[in-house]
TrEMBL record:
Coiled coil: none annotated. InterPro entries: AAA+_ATPase, ABC_transporter-like_ATP-bd, ABC_transporter-like_CS, ABC_transporter_ATP-bind, P-loop_NTPase. PANTHER family: ABC TRANSPORTER ATP-BINDING PROTEIN, TAURINE IMPORT ATP-BINDING PROTEIN-RELATED. This is ATP-binding cassette domain-containing protein. Signal peptide: none annotated. CDD domains: ABC_NrtD_SsuB_transporters. The keyword Kinase does not apply. PROSITE patterns: ABC_TRANSPORTER_1, ABC_TRANSPORTER_2. Keywords: ATP-binding, Nucleotide-binding, Transport.
Length: 254
């Protein structure tokens, strides 16, 4: 359990924001009256205009930022944060990069080694385990970043635009890989993205935020079956959800 008030965590809830405000030291009111509960094992995507406070919300959940009002509660210490940039150590092999956080967390050597191998396997990089980041493509580097988080076997994954810097094909591949990992590992995830189609493909619910100060404009449950495959993109129900979420987002363009 980390940070602040956990009294809003009822059974089956992993992350809860309650009546949350965030004002930065600069005086910027970034978030206003955010109330959102994320159930254990749920994948929630967050979309909203640039600067509406999506990253701030993740940082609050990670305990990297402190709320000015209201509360944030997370039901576990086992939280991994994945950024848009893979931020790998350039001089260290894939294996060492993936093991880095576990090493810092002082996991026993044998256990860490097993977890690292499993995580590298899970993202399909076994053949590249001894290579340096510079010999990998952008998509492969992002997979290393994912594996580094997976090696912690986190209960909660906070993903901040993790595929935003990738080309479209690689991005699609990474989305499918994440879906596969999610189906197999069953973590809880908060996923920030600018892409409505990505949000709908991945999420159980899509949170649509308003422009700054960020408030929750709407929450759209995505009632599409899992496992989700590439072909889902051509499903009329999927296309309808994309339209619904896009329309809600566009309410800001007045
Ligand atoms: N450390 C900080 N100090 C002061 N203001 C900040 C800080 N971090 C973010 N902000 C402000 O808070 C608001 C929300 O920023 P945040 O990065 O959370 O938005 P975002 O929705 O993730 O944006 P984007 O989609 O462009 O990445 C912005 O107005 C930003 O200028």
């Amino acid at each position: 359990m980390h940070d602040v008030d956990a009294s809003h965590l009822t059974h089956g809830v992993e992350v809860a924001f309650h009546d949350l405000d965030l004002t930065y030291g600069t005086g910027t009111l970034a978030l206003h009256k955010i109330t959102l509960t994320v159930r254990t094992g749920e994948l929630v995507a967050i979309v909203g205009p640039s600067g509406c406070g999506k990253s701030s919300l993740l940082r609050l959940a990670a305990g990297l930022e402190r709320a000015s009002g209201g509360s944030v509660a997370v039901g576990t210490e086992s939280v991994a944060f994945i950024f848009q940039e893979p931020t790998l150590l350039p001089w260290a092999s894939v294996r060492r990069n993936v093991g880095l956080l576990g090493k810092l967390a002082k996991l026993p050597h044998d256990e860490l080694s097993e977890r690292v191998d499993a995580a590298i396997r899970a993202v399909g990089l076994t053949d590249f385990a001894d290579q340096l980041p510079r010999s990998l493509s952008g998509g492969m580097r992002m997979r290393v970043s994912l594996a580094r988080a997976l090696a912690l076997e986190p209960r909660v994954m906070l993903l901040d635009e993790p595929f935003g810097a990738l080309d479209e094909l690689t991005r699609e591949e990474m989305q499918l890989q994440l879906l596969d990992l999610y189906d197999r590992r069953g973590f809880t995830a908060l996923f920030v993205t600018h892409s409505v189609s990505e949000a709908v493909l991945l999420a159980d619910r899509v949170v649509v935020m308003s422009a700054r100060p960020g408030t929750i404009r709407d929450v759209v449950p995505i009632d599409l079956p899992r496992p989700r495959h590439r072909e889902l993109r051509f499903d009329p129900a999927y296309v309808d959800y994309v339209k619904t979420v896009s329309d809600l987002l566009r309410k800001d363009d007045r």
